[in-house]
Amino acid sequence: MMKLTPEDAIWAADQFIAYFQDIDQIENYFRSVKMDRVANITPTLFDEQLEDAFFDDFTMSPEDMDFNIVPVGSGGLDNDYFSELLGVVASHVIEDSIPGRELKWLVTEKNTGKVVGFIRFGSPTINSKPRNDYLGAAPDLGLFNRHACMGFIIVPTQPFGFNYLGGKLLALMCASHFAREEVSRRFQKDICWFETTSLYGTAKGVSQYDGLKPFLRHIGDTVSDFTPLMHDTEFHRMHKYFTVRNNNKKLTLDTASSKKLKRQNRMVSIIKNSLEDTAKLKTFCEVMERAKTLTQQKRFYICDYGFSNIREVLSGKDTELKRGPRYDDYSLDNLIALWKKKATKRYNKLKSEGRLRTELEVWTKGENIDIIR
Question: Is 188 helix (H, G, I), strand (E, B) or coil?
């Protein structure tokens, strides 16, 4: 492993310490990273055009709403347009590509034609403690992947999400047979298991997925033990510094998977191995360990689409899925009707209390946005 000079090691350690020591909450971390990403985006659409795309008729009751689900690649909807709209709405940084197959949906309100949310399905993560605990053991991944998908993006526009429980609407769409059938067709699989995680920790009631039993159920919390990544500008500055001192060789190949994570991990390891100042090393290690708490555990949710023998199918004991007594409840129409009841109650309460939000919340206007909403 490369080694820095004592002076360079102290300088590099100070950069990491300065970056991470004042970020004490996950919300502040996401806000910092998000603002850096937005500042470096060159929009292809004017701000007015972006804002005009989002739902903004907050006099409309949920009872009067209907929805269209538009897959990226159909109806003139391309990936760049989807990504640009999503980028100014989502509170966290969106990575534009994920391994494996994916299906992206733009959800619009039919009467207004305006966007209310974004969904992206993808292949599930390789390992998950709550999943393994629920199934009784780590599943055979070949078998599991034939039946499972994950929700990587389930993001409502704002304040549609706040006023109308928009996140719950999108989550229920993911739990519908319509979604199961569409993902099965796109992925060429037989989907019977959907999973997703909360974005901000394990506190009950914070996640948009809470309160949706039996369609989405919390089955445990994920385990995380990695340091969050520096935002783009700071990361590239530090990687360039290390590259120069590594005989102009990058810390990983450009083709490496998760190269940003691997490069930052190598920077941290190089600093630890190079620091001769014991006091500085102690401070550096303490700050980096504390930073890991930002990537705290997340609530893990699943949907079994009303099948009664999920564990048996995913373990290979059964080869045929069996419909449970509530299988038909997972129809898209039924789930939207359920959302309308919840959303109408929410909407009327906010309206009577004078707490209804009417201003569009987009990151191009600045950082004064509720990161947890």
Answer: coil
